[in-house]
Design brief:
oxidoreductase, IsoPropMal-DH-like_dom, alpha/beta, two-stranded antiparallel sheet, binds nicotinamide-adenine-dinucleotide, isocitrate dehydrogenase (NAD+) activity, transit peptide, 340 residues, Isocitrate_DH_NAD
Length: 340
């Protein structure tokens, strides 16, 4: 990003509370004069045969064309004959790495005040290959696929992320003592990439030990890089360390810088349409999007205003113990833009 032109980004407001929290992001971006123009896409009402899901081909094209997008939560319609929306996005767009920064939020008290780590999850293979079958009655088999190509790609991303975000250490999380071939190959790829980054410390931690260390002392970790299923579990564990999924942003990264950022939580149907949703996770995801675009001034401006609003504690939504509506919180963030 050169700082001169407006960037077009795809926005999926999504379902449930999605549209409400997307309005919050749009209003804060407008107030912060962020040079982003949104191209909004909604989940379709019928299956598009070109994607096999309720997401249209035009929506996919929009992300591909713009190379950058922000996504609210989506409710996958119940019934057979279509693919999950999130899986469609991941597969169609080749989003091979999932990144979740987990940072303690001052003013929102949890067991730890000093969490500052990033999980990087391989997003395309492992136990998620969808290769399950029955061998004979009473015996089923699931295939875990690990490839050199996907492992090198996610390891490369993890080290590059560490280097460009001022982080010092990458820990590869594995169970290679048991899954010698699959996790063994994953580790081998991490080691190869680590050699290219002598300034970044590299370590290998067995997943069960990693869980124990994380809950005892999260500051033992910096960047964690993992195969798919371990990443799924550990990234939620880390979200729990900072106060839950409502506060956690994430990014899905593909080739050539393509990125789709998203809130980690779901559509919250119990509070949808009631002006009760907390937009923080989607807002922090939008901050990640700005960082990805090198719009760091705008990212910092919005990030500081969010943290200040939460630290002041006057306009917190119900999930954080307050009484404010989505719109009150949004207004408070806007009032705090540039005030610290
Ligand atoms: P959920 O995250 O929607 O809700 C769990 C609880 O957290 C609810 O009580 C909800 O009110 C609360 N909550 C979640 N986000 C909040 C926010 N921003 N502010 C305040 N409170 C919030 O999980 P669920 O109920 O298991 O799932 C509901 C739907 O969302 C399902 O259809 C599911 O498939 C979908 N889902 C989508 C995604 C996604 O698109 N990435 C992720 C998870 C779930």
């Amino acid at each position: 990003y050169s700082g001169e032109t407006t960037v077009t980004a795809t926005l999926f407001p999504g379902d449930g509370i999605g549209p409400e929290i997307a309005v919050s992001v749009k209003e804060i971006f407008k107030a912060a004069q962020v040079p982003i123009e949104w191209e909004e896409h909604f989940v379709g009402k019928t299956v598009d045969p070109r994607t096999g899901s309720f997401l249209t081909w035009e929506s996919m094209e929009s992300v591909r064309r713009n190379g950058i997008g922000l996504k609210g939560p989506m409710a996958t319609p119940i019934g057979k004959g279509h693919k999950s929306l999130n899986l469609t996005l991941r597969k169609e767009l080749g989003l091979y790495a999932n990144v979740r920064p987990c940072l303690s939020i001052p003013g929102y008290k949890t067991r730890y005040d000093n969490v500052d780590l990033v999980t990087i999850r391989e997003n395309t293979e492992g136990e998620y290959s969808g290769l399950e079958h029955q061998v004979v009655k009473g015996v089923v088999e699931s295939l875990k696929i690990i490839t050199r190509q996907a492992s090198l790609r996610v390891a490369e991303y993890a080290f590059h992320y560490a280097q460009t975000h001022g982080r010092k250490r990458v820990s590869a999380i594995h169970k290679a003592n048991i899954m010698k071939k699959t996790d063994g190959l994953f580790l081998q790829c991490c080691r190869e990439v680590a050699e290219k980054y002598p300034d970044i410390l590299y370590e290998e931690v067995i997943i069960d030990n990693c869980c124990m260390m994380l809950v005892k002392n999260p500051s033992l970790f910096d960047v964690l890089c993992m195969p798919n299923l371990y990443g799924d579990i550990i990234s939620d564990l880390c979200a729990g360390l900072i106060g839950g999924l409502g506060l956690t942003p994430s990014g899905n990264i593909g080739d050539n810088g393509l990125a789709l950022m998203e809130a980690v939580h779901g559509t919250a149907p119990d509070i949808a349409g009631k002006n009760m949703a907390n937009p923080t996770a989607l807002l922090l995801s939008s901050v990640m999007m700005l960082q990805h675009l090198n719009m760091n001034d705008k990212a910092d401006l919005i990030h500081k205003a969010i943290l200040q609003t939460i630290a002041e504690g006057k306009y917190l939504t119900g999930d954080l113990g307050g009484k404010a509506g989505t719109t009150d919180y949004t207004k408070a963030v806007i009032d705090n833009l540039g005030s610290s």
